[in-house]
Amino acid sequence: MISNVCVLGAGRMGSSIVRTLLGYGYPTWVWNRTAAKCGPLAALGATVAPSVADGFRAADVVIINVLDYAASDALLKQDGVASVLAGKAVVQLTSGSPRLAREEARWVEAHGAGYLDGAIMATPDFIGKPETALLYSGSRDVYEAHKPLLFALGGGTSFVGEIPGQASALDTALLTQMWGGLFGALQGMAIAEVEGLSLEMFRSHLSAFKPVVDAALFDLVDRTNARRFAGDDATLASLGAHYSAFQHLLEACEERGLDAGIASRHGYDLSAGAFARAHGR
Ligand code: NAD
């Protein structure tokens, strides 16, 4: 049976979700704080819900995609909404922290609805593509019951766990890794430019270096998972070798007066004495 869906929020992401659902033939309602934003979606076949409560009444599945949890909370907790929640599936695609997801789940479930908390690992133009990943946690029943709809939004969809905040936690963990890489790239570009290297050259060498970096990344995760911290036969570069090479980054920055703050203020104690003490040398 194909579900009726209501999407609360017609921003960049919400609009893309609505367009995708319409493309798959889902009867779709849409509500947005500024109703005018729903116009282009209505032209594609969406029905504009006059209120959030009307959206809940019309739909089996309500997807929330507004700016943040404060906005989402205000929508859910307004007069007339709590009483129409029972029996609905609420899919929260607004970004938030694990705690906010857990709290929202408790509140929604206390009002008789099922709750699935999602993290969208993509920009709006990727919604509906086979490779697009959305992570979900919370009610496995809601996930299983609405799998076709969830997979319509992204073929790389997966269920992370039954604790509602787990999708948000995985999203944050993955983004942390991405931001570390992006901050590193900014530092790298500064070094390249100050030494007269073009960013085209930096970029082209990034591709060749990427498999080595990826292998080191997965090795780090696997070793940490196995709590295998000491060097062994499989070690390709010892901690000492990394430490020594890392000094070149600091020297390169110091020689040209570049701020090495990103490298040196993020938990590394780079004094040789501290390194020796930490490693029993
Ligand atoms: P956007 O700024 O384009 O849209 C924000 C939406 O929130 C609008 O519909 C706006 O009307 C609504 N809104 C804001 N404050 C509100 C309030 N107080 N009450 C009711 N509605 C309110 O943002 P977006 O890019 O569509 O992002 C929406 C959500 O999706 C965010 O939580 C964002 O983190 C998440 N997300 C976005 C992307 C992306 O690439 N754009 C990727 C992953 C996740």
If you compute it from the alpha carbons, what radius of gyration comes out, rounded to the nearest whole angstrom?
24 Å
Strand order of the largest sheet: 3-2-1-4-5-6-7-8
- Structure class: alpha/beta
**Total number of beta strands:** 8
What is the string of helix and strand elements?
A: EHEHEHEHEHEEHHEHHHHH
Biggest β-sheet strands, sense, barrel: 8 strands, mixed
Average pLDDT number: 92
Spell out which ligands are present.
Answer: nicotinamide-adenine-dinucleotide
Give the overall silhouette.
elongated
Distance between the termini: 67 Å
What is the strand and helix layout of this fold?
Elements: E1 5-8, H1 12-23, E2 28-31, H2 39-43, E3 47-48, H3 52-58, E4 61-64, H4 69-76, E5 89-92, H5 98-110, E6 114-120, E7 134-138, H6 140-145, H7 147-153, E8 158-161, H8 166-194, H9 199-225, H10 239-255, H11 261-264, H12 272-278
The site of nicotinamide-adenine-dinucleotide has 21 residues, from helix 1 and helix 4.
What does this protein look like?
The protein is α/β, with parallel strands linked by helices and about 280 residues long. Helices cover about 50% and strands about 10% of the residues. It contains 12 helices and 8 strands. The protein has helices at about 10-25, 40-45, 50-60, 70-75, 100-110, 140-145, 145-155, 165-195, 200-225, 240-255, 260-265, 270-280; strands at about 5-10, 30, 45-50, 60-65, 90, 115-120, 135-140, 160. Strand 1, helix 1 and strand 2 form a beta-alpha-beta unit. The chain is elongated. Mean pLDDT is about 90; it is low at about 265-280. It binds nicotinamide-adenine-dinucleotide. Nicotinamide-adenine-dinucleotide binds near residues 95 and 120. Nicotinamide-adenine-dinucleotide binds near residues 34, 65, 66, 68 and 74.
